[in-house]
Write a structure and sequence with these properties.
It is globular, with a radius of gyration of 20 Å. The termini are far apart. It is an alpha/beta fold. Helix 5 packs across helix 6. Strands 1-2-3-4-5-6-7-8 form an 8-stranded parallel barrel, surrounded by 7 helices. The protein has 2 domains: 229 residues, TIM Barrel (Alpha-Beta Barrel), CATH 3.20.20.60; 29 residues, no CATH class.
Length: 271
């Protein structure tokens, strides 16, 4: 029995129970040990090690450049910090599309080398075979529909998806297909709130929204966005719970001033 054996871990089963009980699921991203520890201690249900690390940690314009090994590095760092949250790891672009054998070996590598609890994959019926193969290995899969950032070059823009009836119907079909194959939850990104609420009612698995309104079973945000560390990202769906950009800037500038003036370190701060 570990020291933390009294902490009840969140599992995929917990999330199903929460949906059935009408309890909303909270989910945030984390990419490193220190941040993950705070997020976990705060009581977040699900931590997503997102391929958004490509943007916020590595400075790429899209999520496409991040590699499987880089995702594994971030995820392993997060898992070492977590006592309670369910840790879901994004499968990066190119690690599962179009080849279900490769998809399975990517997912196995993630699970073995990170200690994560589940993987997340973008797409609907076109990746069903890959999802099915991963599930047969006993690896839980979270789906992701709507705006799928790994397909940015196909869509050409990060606009709201599924506004037209045909695309909306395809999203509904995809959600049902993901449920049928055995996904334990689905993220819906940047779609009309009414459509998201409809999907959440139609399927028995939890639907987590980002820019998908309030009629779903839970919400996810990128931690650097909601803390206001990234100053330049201001989509309508983002609520900023802090302005850490400003607070950190003030701290760094105060430190510079104290170093330059000789005030730091003072007598009590030396040996």
């Amino acid at each position: 029995m570990s020291v933390h054996s009294n902490v009840k871990k969140v599992t995929t089963h917990t999330l199903h129970e929460m949906k059935n009980a009408g309890k909303k699921i909270s989910m945030l991203t984390a990419y490193d040990f220190s941040m993950a520890r705070i997020v976990d201690e705060a009581g977040i249900d699900v931590i997503l090690v997102g391929d958004s690390a490509s943007n916020v940690m590595a400075g790429h314009e899209t999520t496409l450049p991040i590699t499987l090994d880089q995702m594994i590095y971030h995820a392993a760092s997060v898992v070492r910090a977590v006592k309670r949250s369910l840790v879901v790891v994004d499968m990066p672009f190119g690690s599962y599309q179009g080849n279900s054998k490769e998809a399975l070996s990517s997912a196995i590598k993630i699970m073995k080398e990170t200690g994560g609890h589940a993987v997340k994959m973008e797409g609907g019926q076109e990746i069903i075979e890959s999802i099915g193969r991963i599930l047969t290995a006993g690896i839980p899969v979270m789906g992701h529909l709507g705006l799928t950032p790994q397909s940015i070059y196909k869509f050409g823009t990060y606009v709201v998806r599924a506004k037209e009836e045909e695309e909306a119907q395809r999203l509904i079909d995809d959600a049902k297909a993901l449920e049928a194959v055995g996904c334990f939850a689905i993220v819906l990104e940047k779609i009309p709130a009414q459509l998201a609420a409809q999907v959440a009612k139609m399927v028995s698995i939890p639907i987590i929204g980002i820019g998908a309104g309030n009629g779903v079973d839970g919400q996810v945000l990128v931690v650097h966005d909601m803390l206001g560390i990234n100053n330049e990202f201001n989509p309508r769906f983002l609520r900023k719970y802090n302005n850490l950009h400003e607070q950190m800037m003030n701290s760094f500038q105060a430190y510079i001033k104290d170093v330059q003036s000789g005030d730091f370190p003072n007598e009590s701060e030396q040996y």
